[in-house]
Structure formats: structure tokens, C-alpha cells
Amino acid sequence: MSFLELKDIRKSYRMNKSEFPVLKGISLEFDRGEFVSILGESGGGKTTLMNIIGGLDAQYEGDVLLNGQSLRQASTKQLDTYRRQTIGFIFQNFNLISHLSILDNVMVSLQMTKLSRKEQRDRATDLLDQVGLKEHRHKHPNQLSGGQKQRVAIARALASDPDIIIADEPTGALDSQNTKEILALMDDIAASGKLVICVTHSQEVADHGTRIVHMADGVIDHDTALKDPFPVKDGAEMPAKHLGFGATVRMALQHMRYNLGRNLLIIFGASIGIFSVILMLGLGKGVKGYINHEIYSQIKPTAVQVAQKTDSENVKKLEIKDADVQRLKKLSHVKKVQLGFFTQGAQVQSNGTTSTAQMVQTVSDQLLAKSVKKGTRPATGEVMLGKAFAQKFNKKHPYRLIGKKVKVSLTAMDQHHLPVVMTKTLKVSGVSDGSGGQVQTNLQTIKNMYQSKNLTFRANFATVMIDSLSNVTKVQDKIRAMKNSDGKAQYQLTGAGAIVSTLNTYIQLAFYVLAAIAGISLLVSAIMIIVVLYISVSERTKEIGILRALGVRKRDVKNLFLSEAFFLGLFSSILALVFTELVALFANNIANKYIGYAIVSVTGNYLVFGIVVSVVISLIAALAPSSRAAKLDPIEALAYE
Ligand SMILES: Nc1ncnc2c1ncn2[C@@H]1O[C@H](COP(=O)(O)OP(=O)(O)OP(=O)(O)O)[C@@H](O)[C@H]1O
After folding, report:
1. In terms of domains, do 452 and 582 share one?
2. Which of 53, 194, 534, 617 has its CA 20 to 30 A from that of 90?
3. pLDDT tens digit string along 66-105?
4. In this structure, are 549 and 478 located in the same domain?
5. What's this protein's family per the entry (predicted)?
6. Which atom of ligand 1 is nearest to the CA of 48?
7. Ligand 1, pocket-test mutation among 9, 10, 22, most atoms within 8 A of CB
8. How far is 121 from 140, CA to CA, in rounded Å?
9. How many whole angstroms from 347 Cα to the centroid of ligand 1?
10. Which residue minimizes the CA distance to atom 31 of ligand 1?
11. pLDDT, tens digit, for every residue of 246-271?
């Protein structure tokens, strides 16, 4: 049984619906230790036959038997393994990968063996030493002469210790001196017990081998033995594996480094999209925080003012009764409920000056201690004036009013709906910043004023104190959801605190919209990555062909492009994070100076979000180009110029 047997191989190419037969029944037997030259006219089908033997072409009739085993039914994966393990290719135009060093070109084949990384490097260095190029191993292919390139290709073909070396016009691009050197190397290969099949036009090359096969018109017309084959040496096979994930990632990084300038530009472009999205999110959070900070510096955030939800001005309908207080108290997280009263228009008279305050309100626990600028909160029989209002009585020294008596007049309606003026002399207990209204008293003082005119006092709001800030929204939502007997909302929230959550929703919404608009630049980044990867696939078509010829699987080719996209996404997002942090630092410095608050609040979550979005978008963008790369036909890819 021969080592390699071709049985009646037939192959036609289909052009414009007509078939052109190229191989018309080729039957040959080869053994190890042979150096077979295939001669024939140009266009006679020699390369076509080599592609079939080399497992690059599975579209033929007949059969190829290796050690008696048919390749006919081999799957794509099995053919990949066959090329990896059994075949070493040497091409006329060398087909080295330009962005890899000489050593790494040889390593591509070795990375598909089970040797350790160190063994791989040692073997690659040894092979380069054998072909006289050890000193040049760190150079790139474009820094070598043609003869040197072909020697690298030979070292690469031998790397995985294959049994068959297929050389397609290996000396076609070389001068006579280099031709001699390459032939000597190929002689050595055959002498080491491998089968060398060499397609050539040169009689000099053909005469060098052990056998000449001549093709004409799609068949073999001469098969001449020149010498005895070299003796076969038995050696252990080098176990093969597919290109590991680590090797794929390394190759992707090597390619990115080779095209550093272009990749840096892409990374910069893509980072702008991520940067704008993270910045908008951070700015949204910062602005929201700032507004809340401003509101809560005026009022206690855990106190919520509740009033009856009605359009009516009827004091009875507006009244907050004991039953309401009990109802509100029952809500979980509610610590305390205080009745309150407010009314519009109060006349305050001091030393002959009368001024009208727009609003009078009772103090509650909602009042922050720091709101009392000077003096104390009003006790019964006392009043506290807002600073601006107090200045109406003493422009320069508003605090001098403290301790003085003022006359306060309020208007109420009696049961006949007639206005009744209630007047009481109250002592000024303190001056506030005005956040609780221009005039503040306590509940008992107001009650006393009503009693003095025999009028019924009705509280018209309640202050609900909540146990912690984190429960405020929860309680607010529950209060809003409470229904009256008609099934309508019973209460409404009033005061500054009531608008906080609505305001927050609007701010949040506004910045989500801004972030979404910024997201358009993300889309542009994604399109840019798609275009760049498509260009990259076109540019690297030949490289893909070479890798496939070396036995790299479709999936590995796909992973190669996906890895590049992954790194583009990762590096873009890292750059974006650096930009964001710098801009945040700058903006917050200025904001701290003017408003005493860091306006850009970039949290760890946003940073992680930025990285994930960037990587995911890049990977999605890479899906189509990388599948296209994986699907390229290796023969067409190799022929790509
Ligand atoms: N993909 C293809 N589609 C159509 N025809 C093809 C294709 N590849 C090769 N051919 C044709 O098949 C014939 C054999 O081509 P092949 O490359 O095998 O010849 P060759 O003997 O290696 O030629 P040369 O010595 O010039 O390299 C040629 O006529 C060529 O035009």
C-alpha cells in the first residue's frame, strides 16, 4: 500500500454554465522519501491537483487515500486537521504573514501542536537556524530578500513535522543561487523521509528530484523515476491541536500593534461615543444631586407635608382631622404626624409700621434648626419672622425685632361665610431664613386666635415624619395612593418636598434623553468598527488563506477578528473612562468653586456600564465581518492580490 494514492481524480471548473474539465482522471501513487516534480504546461491543472492533495479543495471526483484512508468523506474540520498535521505548504510567492515577525510566522504552525510554549519557541528558532535565518528571526518579512523569505516558508512548512511537503513553484521567484539553496533544503527534507511534491516549470528543479511526473491535457503522460526514494525514518508524530484561544488573542494583539497608528485613531474615535454617554449619565446624576442638595438644605428631607386633595376652598373640605392623622400614622415607616395650619395674608404691625405677609404657617419638625437665623422657634404666644419680612420693620437691624411685641391679624370666615379679623399681640421669638414662610407661629397660638373669636379651628395640613430618607419615596407613593370613599385620591403632597421626586424624574429623564443622543455617536463608532473590520478582512484576505492552508479552523479565523474587535472596544472604553475622569475633575473643580458642589458624579456603575456597552457594541459590529472572514474560500483567499 502506497503512503499517498490518487485514484482517478477528475475536476472541472464551471464558467458561465459550461464546464471546463481540468483534471481528467489522474491516478498516482507516492511514497515517503520521494522528491516528486510535477511538470506540465501552464494552465494544465498542476496547482488544482496540489490543492486537492493538500486538502484545500474538496470539490472533485475520485479519491485521495492517505495510508489507505480515504479523504473523500472528510469533513471540513477533518481536512483542517489533515492540513495541520500532514501537509506543509511552500508557495511560489512565499505567503508569509507580513505583520508577524519571522519567528512568529513559524510559530503559527507550532501553536497548533501540543508542544509547550517554550518548546515551540525553541523548535522555531532551531528551524530558522537550519535554514540559516536565526539571526533574522525578529525581522518582519518585508525586511528579507526573496530567497530568505522562501527559507522562512520552508521552516514554517516543516514546523509541525508534516509527512507531505507540497511546494508550488518554490523557486519560481528566485535567482539561480537562491534556487540552488532552496533545492538543497528540499533535498534534505526528502532525505529526512518526507514526501516532497513540487510543482515546477523548471527542468533544473525537476532533474533534482527522485521522480518526474508530467501532465498534459488533464492526464499524466509520463511518470519517470530518476533515483531511488530516500529511506524512510520512523519518528514519533508531533501531536496536533487547533489554534488555541490564547494564540488567537496574541495574534490579534500582534496585528493591532503592527497597525498601531490606525488602531489608535479608531480607538480614539470610538471612545468619544462612550465618553459622551458616561459623561451625560454622570452629569445627570450630579445635577440631580445638586438640586436635591439645594432643596434639602432648606427643608428636612424626611418630613412630608400632606393636604386634602380637593379643588374646593371650603375649610371643612380642607380640614385634616384626627382620623386623617390616625390613618397616616398607621403607614409603615411613619414616625410621627403633626397637624399644621397655613393661611394667606397676615397683617403684622410693629411700632406704627404695618406690613402684609403673603403667608402664615405653623412650625413643625420639618423646620431645620439652621433655618432659625437668630432667636428661637416660636412657642405659644410667639411669632417668628422671615428675615426679609423683618427688614420691612427695621431694614438695617432686622434681628432687633426679637423680643419685641408685634400685632398679628389674620382673617377667617365665620359660619355665615363672613370674614372675621382675629388680632393678637405676639412676641417675636426669632428671625428665620424665610424658608418656612414669612410669618411662623405655633399651632396653639393659631388655635387661641380662633378661640378668641369663638370660631372653629380646622388644621389644613399635616407634617408626616418618616423614619429614614430611603423610605421617603415609598411613603410618599403610599400617601398618594390612599383613596377616599369615592375611590379618588384622598391626599396630595404639598411643600418643596412634594416636588422633589417629580423633579428628580424629570432631571433623570432629561439626562437619559441626552445620554441617548450621545448614544448616536456610539452608533457611529459601531459603524466605524464595522467598516474598519470589513476593510481589514479585505486587506487580510491573503493572510486568511494562508492561515486556512496551515490548518487554522474557520472558527479560529472568526475568533481572530472578534478578538480584535474586543480589544478595540475595551481600549476605547478605557480611553473614554480616562477622558471622563479628566473632564469630571475639571468640571467639578470649577463647579466646586462657584456652587460648592461637584456637578459631575461618575459612579463605578457608569464606568462598568461604559466598558460593557463598548465591548458588546464592538463585538456585535464585528459579527458580520468576522463571519465573512471565516467563510472565505481558502484557495480564493490565497489567490487574492
Ligand atoms: N477558480 C477557478 N475558476 C475557474 N477556472 C479556474 C479556477 N482555478 C483555475 N482555473 C483554471 O483551471 C486551469 C488549471 O489551473 P491551474 O492553476 O491548476 O494550472 P497550473 O497548471 O497550476 O498553471 P500554472 O503552471 O500556470 O500555474 C486553468 O485554465 C485555470 O484558468
Report:
1. no
2. 534
3. 988 998 888 988 999 999 889 999 988 889 999 999 999 9
4. no
5. Belongs to the ABC transporter superfamily. Macrolide exporter (TC 3.A.1.122) family.
6. 18
7. 22
8. 17
9. 107
10. 43
11. 889 999 999 999 889 989 998 998 89
